């Protein structure tokens, strides 16, 4: 056997090209979907921030008004508290990083922990695993 390689047939070349085009189309579609999601998130965050600003102005008016109803102030404060919990403080770049980075489970073992768990204990039954039975010749100078 001298040469085990062969040139691709026209059909194989076309198939490989189609597969490549499909992968590229999927990648572009994912990027576009991500961009749409980011734009929608940005719009909703801006709307929440504007509503929060409006509610804070309303609360300021209620506080300065001596004839204001205490119930109205409580409702506004409650709505402000809810919105403050929903408004994201992170930037869009942070959100992109969080989306693109794979999520690692907190329960997943690190490589070091995995190596420590996999470390084999020496035993009398298997002298190959016990360092006591090492027969290395010490280095002499």
- The helix/strand class is mainly alpha
What percent of residues are in strands?
under 5%
> Helix content range of the residues, please?
55-70%
Poorly predicted segments: none
- Overall average residue pLDDT: 78
Shape descriptor reads elongated
| Radius of gyration (Å) | 32 Å
* H-E order: HHHH
Q: What is the β-strand count?
A: 0
Largest sheet: none
Number of helices: 4
- State the end-to-end distance: 52 Å
What do you see in this structure?
This protein has 141 residues and is mainly α. The chain has a domain at 10-104. Helices cover 63% and strands 0% of the residues. It contains 4 helices and no strands. The chain is elongated, with a radius of gyration of 32 Å. It starts with 9 loop residues before the first helix and ends in a 23-residue tail after the last helix. The model has no long low-confidence stretch (mean pLDDT 78).
Give a short synopsis of this structure.
With 141 residues, this protein is an all-alpha fold. The protein has helices at residues 10-64, 70-86, 92-100, 111-118.
Describe how the helices and strands are arranged.
Layout: H1 10-64, H2 70-86, H3 92-100, H4 111-118
Helix pairs in contact: 1-2
Write a concise keyword list for the protein shown above.
141 residues; single chain; 4 helices; 0% strand
